[in-house]
Amino acid sequence: MRRPIAVAVLTLALAACAGHAAPLAIASGSQQGPAETMPSLAPMLERVLPAVVSIAVRGTVAMEQNPLLQDPFFRRFFGSPDLPQERAFEAIGSGVIVDAAQGIVITNAHIVEDADELTVTLGTGEQLAATKLGADPETDIAVLKVETDGVELTALPLGDSSKLRVGDIVVAVGNPFGLEQTATSGIVSALGRTGLGIEGYEDFIQTDASINPGNSGGALVNLRGELVGINTAILAPSGGNIGIGFAIPVAIVQGVMTQLVEHGEVRRGQLGVVVQDLTPALAEALGAQAREGAVVTQVLAGSPAEQAGIRVGDVIVSVDGQAIRNSSELRNRIGLMAIDQQVTLGIQRDGKPLTVTPTLARAQQRQIDGGQMDKRLAGALFEAATGRPQEGLVAVAEVAPGSPAYQLGLRPGDRITSVNRRQVENLEQFGQLVKQAGDTILLGVNRRGTPLLLAVQ
Question: What is the pLDDT at residue 47?
Answer without folding.
Answer: 93
